[in-house]
Amino acid sequence: MRDLYQRLSLPPDATDTQIRQALEACSNRALQKDASAVLTVAEHRQEYDALHATLADIGRLRARLGLCHGAHWQGSIAHDFARSPGEAVDQHQALRRRVRQAAVRYSRWQRLGGPWLAAVALIAAACVGFAGGLALCLRLGAI
Hints:
Keywords: Membrane, Transmembrane, Transmembrane helix
Number of domains: 2
Distance between the termini: 77 Å
Shape: elongated
Protein name: J domain-containing protein
């Protein structure tokens, strides 16, 4: 599906006047015909806008995941809702960096004896809880 707004250099909230002017200035007959059929009829435009928002969200999600179309798709209709490959590569590198940081933290936890440290923390919490309960009982005079 083509991004008619992008192809006509219009914002998604363009007025009817802006759309008519963009259609008149458009030199591509097929694009002009499609955009006229979709954007000038109110019901068609509402349906298109809902689908446009969904596809734009999917394009942003794909870019955040580091997914992009190959070089042979650049400039085609399939690329209308995707971000540029450079942005997607940056997203992929950021994701790799976060995974690497998580792995380093996990390795540190394992080196410090994570299970032993967790057991000591649990025992300390139980002791503090017992002491707090004993103090409360003494204060209330139950013992």
